[in-house]
């Protein structure tokens, strides 16, 4: 396991070839990464199914699911699935719940009128269910008439519940209700500082931060590797992440003037790319990780950039 002040994790890419999924997880475990996070992006693979598979195929690495859209699953059945994994793999499961991407959720007919209300009701009910308590609630979205986990199904070590959120109001909700907050990429120290002011947790609270990453002894090669993965960051939805860096308006203008998202990523100045990703030599990336831990991050999750996820994973392991 890493000897850094915080945990260092890696993301299992949502589009990884099926044949590489289990080898990737086993290699992440063997390299010594502390955590492996799986994603549930609409149209790719289910988060709980991935988590069950990689937990069963690895030895000690902690597995996070980031994230489950609250509107997509009845909370009582989510509790059953999560409790089963927590019992079979004690102390190795984290579970992030969020709104989901609005466009995806609308396309699936599952976007609520009040995402914040749903998330608050959902997390509170999920926490109680995983503790083995009967839950009676008649909320706007979560309505339960006393279901509970059977005593034989209650995990001794319930999974930590994270909220995957972005807006100031949802970050505050995370601080009030969840065990941790999952911050999507790019999660830079200025963004983390800003998010922490909104989270303002009432009790010990973990911060997991995603960042696109590439490690190479040649700094320019690492930057070239991450550029294609930065193409979506010109979209307005990423403004809260980039505005604290001081160049969002210029970045948005570059995106508007670019013929395509690929052209936008190619034209992005090196100094912007360096701030929006963890890219460079092992020493440089370790230094950037240290800055994240100082800012309040407890777990830094690296998103492998490059054409071969397993090759990228091997290069990222140099920071451990």
Textual characterization of the structure:
The protein is of the alpha/beta class. It has helices spanning 18-31, 47-57, 75-88, 102-107, 115-130, 168-177, 189-199, 219-226, 239-242, 248-257, 261-267, 270-276, 282-295, 309-316; strands at residues 7-11, 35-38, 62-69, 93-98, 136-138, 143-145, 160-164, 180-183, 206-215, 278-280, 299-304. It has one domain: Alpha-Beta Barrel (TIM Barrel), CATH 3.20.20.30. The strands form 2 sheets. It has an 8-stranded parallel barrel, surrounded by 8 helices. It has a two-stranded antiparallel sheet with strand order 5-6. Strand 7, helix 6 (168-177) and strand 8 form a beta-alpha-beta unit.
Low-confidence stretches: none
Q: In the CATH scheme, what's the topology name?
A: TIM Barrel
Strands of the biggest beta sheet: in what spatial order? 1-2-3-4-7-8-9-11
The helix count comes to 14
Largest sheet: 8 strands, parallel, barrel
Please provide the ordered H/E string of secondary-structure elements. Answer: EHEHEHEHHEEEHEHEHHHHHEHEH
Secondary-structure content class: alpha/beta
Give the CATH H-level superfamily: Luciferase-like domain
The dominant shape is globular
Indicate the proportion of strand residues: 15-25%
Highest CATH level, the class: Alpha Beta
According to DSSP, the number of beta strands is: 11
